[in-house]
Design a protein that fits this description.
The N terminus is likely disordered. It is built from 5 helices and no strands. With about 110 residues, it is an all-alpha fold. The protein has one domain. Helix 2 packs antiparallel against helix 3 and helix 2 packs across helix 5.
Length: about 110
């Protein structure tokens, strides 16, 4: 029985480890900043400017595309890298949840 103890610990350790994306995985702090910027861009692009006939909360897709391009350039991340990271974080909801928990106070600064 004693000879199986190291094997059991190894299996438990490996089972508890998260699969990684390698060096392409954005750290949670960077992902939080990017998602905060994206949320602000989404909100800002949905504001009605000038034309009262424009539907409320309709997004200006031209400006939104520009915002996304600038955000990706600022963080030196491609659209594909961002999409891959989102998929990884979706597969690890506890990590994504911890990012969103940290985003709430950051976004509440703009709620004035």
């Amino acid at each position: 029985m004693r000879k199986y103890i190291p094997i059991i610990f190894t299996i438990l350790f490996v089972a508890g480890c998260k699969p990684n994306m390698g060096s392409d995985l954005l750290p949670p702090a960077v992902m939080m900043k990017m998602l905060t910027d994206i949320q602000l861009a989404e909100t800002y692009s949905g504001q009605v400017k000038g034309d009262p006939r424009q539907r409320a909360f309709a997004k200006n897709t031209d400006s939104l595309a520009l915002y996304y391009k600038e955000i990706f350039a600022h963080y030196k991340v491609s659209q594909q890298q961002f999409d891959d990271n989102i998929q990884w974080y979706k597969a690890h909801p506890e990590d994504l949840d911890s990012i969103y928990v940290k985003m709430i106070p950051e976004l509440s600064k703009y709620d004035k």
